[in-house]
Amino acid sequence: DFSKMKKLNYLDLSMNNLTQIKSNYFKQNSLITDLILYKNKINNIQIYSFESLKSMKVLNLSYNFLEYFGQDLFGFDTYFFDLIYLDLRNNLLKKFEIFENFISLYSVDVSFNLINNIKAFVFDTIINNYYLNNNQLSEITTFTFQNFFKFLIKM
Length: 155
Hints:
This protein is mainly β. Helix content is 6%, strand content 17%. 25% of the residues are buried.
């Protein structure tokens, strides 16, 4: 139980046997900037699990068994100004969505998943690094990278 560690900034629970993250589990740890959950057995993250982590810069959930990763894990009306790195590689994700609430997101790794198509709205957020390799991509819709190229032209 980390609820008594209110000033906790960095939490690394890598290579354990965690299977789920319960809603508001980190509610008392709003100062966490780096949450590393690498190489566990996480297959379930309940809604609002990360809602209180508005200072989080790094979220590493790689090498787990996640089939779903969505906006409701963070809260629907919450903006994450500080999150810059999201690592979801080596999971079981079949689809992936980037949410406009992640304003500062710089790098996203969803490589080595089961993603089979990408829709245009995925790339509405300006992110510098997308890692999509080693998925099962068979379809990319016509305007998927439209905003991505607008960003490149502005640079």
